[in-house]
């Protein structure tokens, strides 16, 4: 990479941070991200919240690609996600390099090309309950020529983005549909209010063992690490 061609993502971060400080709705966030991506030389952006068994997305990709990505669990083998989990540092990537070894991965790379994801730059951060949040900028170009001077600077912007999206709620995020039963929702609601399993059982007229069963069912459906995590997910998604 020549010195003349090298660009730095840091140069565009201050405006994004300013926008995140005042963002009050989804459209403001989307506009700020689109402007940030465009100034940095990219056409597409994706914010992803990724846990071991699930991914949620906020992006300007066509809905067809978003739903395909989610329904086929591409996040489990997407080389961009795999690399992010391994390094947890900002990095540039390109499809030809990341997808050459594995036929299954190569298939994802080829599908992504049709939606303008050929090369890009990703910024992962660790957030609560074993979740990785990541902002990815992508381009139709075959190679990427942008770098980062100060990783802390760009990860701060992603942290602010994550906080805003979490604050504004699950309506912003594409996610696979999850259906909880009325009993599961009720038990989670009481758990969120600090009630013990015994107290919840007494109020509902069921045994403590049955309350534990409903909470475990909800935890599994939400792919949560524990009941506290399940309560957090259900609250974030406005299920309870």
UniProtKB/TrEMBL annotation:
Q: Which domain of life does the protein's organism represent?
A: Bacteria
What is one process in the GO biological process aspect for this record? regulation of DNA-templated transcription
Q: Where is the HTH luxR-type domain?
A: 173-238
Write out the GO MF terms.
Answer: DNA binding
Which UniProt key words apply to this protein? DNA-binding, Transcription, Transcription regulation
Q: Give one Pfam family.
A: Autoind_bind
Q: Provide the protein name.
A: LuxR family transcriptional activator of conjugal transfer of Ti plasmids
Q: Which organism is it from?
A: Aquabacter spiritensis
